[in-house]
Design goal:
Blueprint lengths: L1 H7 L6 H14 L6 H7 L5 E7 L8 H8 L4 E7 L7 H16 L5 E3 L1 E2 L4 E2 L9 E4 L11 H4 L4 E4 L16 H5 L2 E4 L2 H10 L7 E3 L32
Parallel strand pairs: 1-2, 1-6, 2-3, 6-7, 7-8, 8-9
Antiparallel strand pairs: 4-5
């Protein structure tokens, strides 16, 4: 479909208009009807849930995984995938650190990459009913939402609280192709509703799982203000 849309819009010479039309067409034709699949899953006694993770730093679903683990209706697993933006040695090192990160938590971890044969492991090998994406862009065509949606309901929890007013952050083909997007606030729901072609029809305000950590924490009453400095980049010596 992407190639067809590119051909259709090729003769629109105004680049800005061409880009906007292409984006709207891609979003429109990315929407997937999950009705039959949802009805099929509803008949099952237990649902296998996969969380795709390539960077543990972006992991945001501790409380959700733990809640699912306590409920016999769900069988949650963490699928570790390869971080493709690094060299081979670094990829394996990061992969192993991700595996250790989740196993130290006592989570059920399965492989998303076979380093011995240098190939991605299909998610279908684990017979998932629900798949949670960690970040908007799937790392391989094997994890493309259109493909995964043939056998699993697809979900996304943003790995950070969305603060930007940039409309592009609230309207892309990935978001339109998902079964559900779980949002942190009514504020961001309204942004999605304003910008998405489907008017946030697949969005739900559920809160932000990372902040669940503070639910049972006693916050000390101190006079001095606490400042958290958490830059969105890395430092190298």
């Amino acid at each position: 479909m992407k190639k067809i849309i590119k051909i259709i819009t090729f003769f629109i010479f105004n680049k800005k208009i061409r880009r906007e039309i292409r984006k709207k067409l891609l979003c429109k034709y990315s929407m997937i009807d999950y009705g039959n699949l949802l009805a099929e899953k509803a008949k099952k006694d237990q649902l296998t849930v996969l969380f795709i993770v390539s960077q543990n730093q972006k992991w945001s679903s501790d409380s959700l995984y733990i809640a699912m683990k306590k409920d016999d209706y769900f069988l949650p697993k963490i699928v570790i995938t390869k971080q493709s933006s690094y060299g081979t040695n670094s990829q394996k090192d990061i992969y192993d650190k991700n595996v250790k990160f989740f196993k130290d938590k006592g989570f059920d971890v399965v492989d998303g990459y076979d380093f011995d044969h240098d190939k991605i492991i299909e998610l279908s090998a684990y017979n998932p009913d629900i798949v949670f994406y960690q970040q908007p862009l799937s790392q391989s065509s094997k994890y493309n939402v259109e493909k995964i949606s043939k056998y699993a309901l697809t979900c996304y929890i943003p790995y950070s609280v969305l603060l930007s007013e940039n409309a592009d952050h609230y309207n892309n083909p990935f978001q339109h192709s998902l079964w559900k997007i779980f949002l942190d606030s009514e504020l961001n729901y309204n942004r999605f509703q304003t910008n998405m072609l489907n008017h946030a029809g697949n969005c739900i305000v559920s809160g932000y799982p990372k902040l669940d950590y503070f639910l049972n924490k006693t916050i000390p009453n101190i006079e001095k203000k606490t400042i958290i400095y958490a830059p969105h980049h890395s430092f190298e010596a």
